[in-house]
């Protein structure tokens, strides 16, 4: 049976690609729509000329007699490729459902996605149709990857997702509008086990993407944080970032967002025509390669610390097809009668393999890499026997399967005169106070060289200190804090862990040891079984910089260290997911 499929926005950037993808499907009669009748017909003629079947171009304005137009066309399914969805209502979706047609859309706007099921499920069930939203790179592809990688996991600690398209790819006005709508504005992030906010397109960082290299990315607005965080009870972080290959575009957008955050830049929407013209120059130095990276950490079904990384590399400017492939997979489900009636997010009707099947005709390669580590860097440094002799709270905090987020209170004392106060402010130390809420998130990871690493994020009631610990040699850590790297010998005895500073570098420049800060750092367990810390930092000739002490307890439900984890060997498995398009 041949069924009629209508693409709303079928001549746009994403709609046109989906039309080309679907044009060869024999089981559908394809209609592409545009508000401009001649534009729709020209494009339909182009598609018909490149294949053996007829594609029809029709005029359709969703803001003008949409219900009547749908009843004329009588589609089996409608795919809404128009946008942006940031300010869209559900009127188009409701009209499609009332016309008795199944609905798929490519929405990625968080508010639209969040209210979709509640607003439309009842009417979809009344008309016995399926309505699927978010059938794009986010949240459907990203969610399907997470579901695939974390099947039967005991715990998910962090989920980090990033997308970086090739710079030569065509970008439409709707995409620019969506990006600028939240640049410099608050966007959701799942942090320390709860929904929080970060400013969109600020605080960028470089990431190493397999088979591509380093690209700079920054936080963007998606639904993933508030959707995946609760769904997987993520203990630590869910973050979604994106990056532009052109450094001029990326740094310019980050600068614009930072100025807008501080109230120094007006609404940038007026710049859209100029930005579209500027891309004609900025894209000259870019490539046709784009990528997506999903990295997850937590405990696998056996309780072993696991780092799962899934990556996608698109060549030959095929990256822009990725956002339409989940919609194509969803349409395939509808044609096969396998999608349940009602309104829901598209990932709830699809699997990762469903989407990968749509990639076979493109230069898109995916791969997954799983690494596991049973012994923490602290247990490695101290030795298993010494580590096992530590009090429970210290062993739990520093164990490889320990809870990643701990919370409590702290008491903070700062320097007493001008110079230490200025230095304390420069390094971002928290202000003096008592009973200050504190949260510490420990992100454990396994580096490309196979060595474990820990990143500590200390949040003192909004003042955040971050450092990264790696093993330099037996008995000594390196702790990187901003531009400085400190040598930290670690020792344990009498129920305590001590971590003084023995030397330091500024960048790669080794500085005289006599100038090194003095760190009197002691960790212990109190009579209530809590993890306690006492950190006193001083500088030669300056005196006290900061003295903070307090206690912590696991924020989430504590999972005890499994008795057999010390016998689990580290593994490093590279797996290419089923995808013949290489």
Describe this structure in words.
The protein is built from 16 helices and 30 strands. It has a 13-stranded antiparallel β-sheet. The chain has an eight-stranded mixed β-sheet with strand order 10-11-12-7-13-14-16-30. A seven-stranded parallel β-sheet has the order 3-2-1-4-5-6-15, with helices on both faces. Helix 2 (about 35-50) links the parallel strand 2 (about 30-35) and strand 3. Helices cover about 25% and strands about 35% of the residues. It is elongated and about 80 Å long. By secondary structure, it is an alpha+beta fold.
Q: What is the fold's blueprint, element by element?
A:
Blueprint: E1 3-8, H1 13-22, E2 28-34, H2 37-49, E3 56-59, H3 66-73, E4 77-80, H4 91-98, E5 102-105, H5 110-126, E6 130-133, H6 137-149, E7 155-164, H7 173-182, E8 186-191, E9 194-199, E10 205-209, E11 213-219, H8 224-231, E12 237-242, H9 247-261, H10 272-282, E13 290-299, E14 305-314, H11 325-335, E15 342-345, H12 352-356, E16 364-373, H13 377-382, H14 384-388, H15 392-398, E17 405-414, H16 418-427, E18 433-446, E19 452-460, E20 463-473, E21 476-481, E22 484-489, E23 491-493, E24 496-498, E25 503-506, E26 509-510, E27 518-525, E28 531-539, E29 543-554, E30 571-575
Parallel strand pairs: 1-2, 1-4, 2-3, 4-5, 5-6, 6-15, 7-12
Antiparallel strand pairs: 7-13, 8-9, 10-11, 11-12, 13-14, 14-16, 16-30, 17-18, 17-29, 18-19, 19-20, 20-21, 21-22, 22-25, 23-24, 24-27, 25-26, 27-28, 28-29
